[in-house]
Amino acid sequence: MRAWKLEIPPGADIRQPHAKPGGDEVSLVELNALGVLYQYFAPSDYDKSGTETHARWLQFRSDHGFKYADVLEVSPEQLPDFESKLQMFFEEHIHADPEVRYVTAGSGYFDVRDESDSWIRIAVEPGDMLVLPAGIYHRFTVDSSNYIRAVRLFADEPQWVPINRTSAERHPARLAYEQLYPERSFSTEPEQQALRV
Ligand SMILES: CSCCC(=O)/C(O)=C/O
Ligand SMILES: [Fe+2]
């Protein structure tokens, strides 16, 4: 996993890295401060009983109450309506529950908004597990490989319910997210870079 400040020029291919010129890499500590969690599980072992990785995987799921899992493959061959699904994934949104994605093959980018409403791009590859907290503004795209396979973890029956930003500002999950990180001061408008007081 690597993360950096993002700047996509208008009309550019979203599947390219687009590191902001002169922008710094973003550390795990900075991601943690936004509520984004990361763990590595060796992909060859996470589902192999008897391995230390599998034991850690089960422990993580049990500690956080993720009873359900499914596997999503995002590629032109595996996902019907690939391009339109990709557009939906790249529409800025929140969820009412944490988004947990463990990458077992391929690669891609999760973009999250920081406290000043700037984008941070998080590149994931096999072994990377990301937890995006409920209420964080985010989006997803495959990278130029056009392929990712991810295990998705859920507390309840698997379902994917995005709440697009245009209707998310007063959503309880968004308000709770802003309350959870009171030391960060979230701006309310994408264009508004000044911090709210
Ligand atoms: C590889 S996960 C697919 C995208 C998704 O589920 C999501 O919610 C992105 O934000
Ligand atoms: Fe999402």
Automatic annotation (TrEMBL):
SUPFAM superfamilies: RmlC-like cupins. GO terms for cellular component: cytoplasm; nucleus. Its cofactor is Fe(2+); Ni(2+). It is found in: Cytoplasm; Nucleus. Pathway: Amino-acid biosynthesis; L-methionine biosynthesis via salvage pathway; L-methionine from S-methyl-5-thio-alpha-D-ribose 1-phosphate: step 5/6. Its main location: cytoplasm. One of its GO terms (biological process) is L-methionine salvage from methylthioadenosine. Its EC number is 1.13.11.54, 1.13.11.53. GO terms for molecular function: acireductone dioxygenase (Ni2+-requiring) activity; acireductone dioxygenase [iron(II)-requiring] activity; iron ion binding; nickel cation binding. It is an enzyme of class 1 (oxidoreductase). CDD domains: cupin_ARD. Keywords: Amino-acid biosynthesis, Cytoplasm, Dioxygenase, Iron, Metal-binding, Methionine biosynthesis, Nickel, Nucleus, Oxidoreductase. Fe(2+) binds at residues 93, 95, 99, 138. Binds either 1 Fe or Ni cation per monomer. Iron-binding promotes an acireductone dioxygenase reaction producing 2-keto-4-methylthiobutyrate, while nickel-binding promotes an acireductone dioxygenase reaction producing 3-(methylsulfanyl)propanoate. Ni(2+) binds at residues 93, 95, 99, 138. It catalyses: 1,2-dihydroxy-5-(methylsulfanyl)pent-1-en-3-one + O2 = 4-methylsulfanyl-2-oxobutanoate + formate + 2 H(+); 1,2-dihydroxy-5-(methylsulfanyl)pent-1-en-3-one + O2 = 3-(methylsulfanyl)propanoate + CO + formate + 2 H(+). Belongs to the acireductone dioxygenase (ARD) family. Catalyzes 2 different reactions between oxygen and the acireductone 1,2-dihydroxy-3-keto-5-methylthiopentene (DHK-MTPene) depending upon the metal bound in the active site. Fe-containing acireductone dioxygenase (Fe-ARD) produces formate and 2-keto-4-methylthiobutyrate (KMTB), the alpha-ketoacid precursor of methionine in the methionine recycle pathway. Ni-containing acireductone dioxygenase (Ni-ARD) produces methylthiopropionate, carbon monoxide and formate, and does not lie on the methionine recycle pathway. This is Acireductone dioxygenase.
